[in-house]
Amino acid sequence: WILIFLIPAVTMRSFSDEKKQGTLELLLTKPLNIWEIVNGKFLGAVLLIVMAIVPTIIYVFVISSLGMPEGNIDMGSTIGSYFGLLFLIGAYSAIGIFTSTLSDNQIVAFIVAVFFCFFFYFGFEGLASLVPTIATLISAIGMQDHFKSMGRGVLDTRDILYFVSITFLFLSFTVYKLKSFKL
Questions:
Q1: DSSP structure class, residue 153
Q2: Of 22, 70, 132, 170, which is most buried, counting CB atoms within 10 Å of its CB?
Q3: Residues 6 or more apart in contact with residue 74 via CB below 8 angstroms
Q4: At what angle do helices 143-151 and 157-182 cross, to 10 degrees?
Q5: Which pTM does this prediction carry?
Q6: What pLDDT digit, counting tens, does each position of 87-112 carry?
Q7: In terms of Cα–Cα distance, which of 114, 98, 91, 113 is closest to 160?
């Protein structure tokens, strides 16, 4: 829940503020291609969120040492959850950067990004409950199914490929949208 609000708050100014202040044209005339600009903003957002998540690793070691018996914690599940968080951070950041290209207003970009992140995580589960005949297919499209699989400690290539595909898809949407500004 925290990431659904934190990541759009970090990414809402990525391109919307550039458009509002009129510096997007200046940025696009730099000797960089659009993919490099988008990847720079994406990696900056991901690095900032990862730096916010890293201190929580201390909790894992504290809980492990205070457990009865000591070390009574499922480290596979915990490590899998952290990997799932990294992929979730990447996907949410790509969604947030894309939504910042849709509007000049950063608040609108924030609200749209929260909606997209919420829909991709919870929305497909809700749709699956409405159509029980193809519920497994619909829930497999959403992020929650893939994140829960990683949270159990199972790093399946299907889940990794899903998150990488969503991230690449939204970064591609961002590049496409920025190319329409350049024309």
A1: T
A2: 170
A3: 153
A4: 140
A5: 0.87
A6: 999 999 999 999 998 888 889 989 99
A7: 91
